Amino acid sequence: MLWGLLEGLLGHTCPGCGNRLDAPLLCRGCRQGLRAFAAGEMVYLGLYGRVGGVVRALKYGKRFGLAPLLAEPLAEAVSAQGWRLAGVTAVPTLLPRLAVRGYNPPELLGRAVAARLGVPYLRVLRRERYTPSQPSRGRARRHLPQDLFAPVLRVEGSWLLVDDVLTSGATFLRAKEALLRAGAGRVYGAFLAVRDPGALGPYR
Asked: What contacts 70, CB < 8 A, 6 or more positions away?
């Protein structure tokens, strides 16, 4: 409560609804409304129009403490699906981007999800090349090179691949392919937000 009051005095608002904070990082109403949805072999918190605020706060606002809060409903949804996971990994970013930002939001989220599921988190993939930001590109143009990601470890069993936003599905597909090349027998997905519900279609 004291942290919520302090953030309120500092002018911080809830990234979920924009109202005054009455709890640290995320207001009580938004905390109570957190739940994840399942679509085939994917789980996600909601459409970008609804949860985009918390995505931006984690991705650009450096509100690292949001990761454990947002990971909890995702982990619950994964458990409800009955997926038997060998581990969790995240879609990697380029080293220059990591150097500028200082952290990779999907990795923060993935580590928190793995901790709640009681399975290992490993950096299985490496990003090999730059591509423009997906939200800035038309859906018809989102054809990414097949060698966008490369495995750096050998794995086995089923893995959960975490990213912050599912836009067209192209980035997830390339990362999934690389994770399969790493030895994964099956790859599931977990996201904070989905920009285009149509992107869920191929994976249902």
From this structure: 34, 45, 54, 58, 109, 112, 192
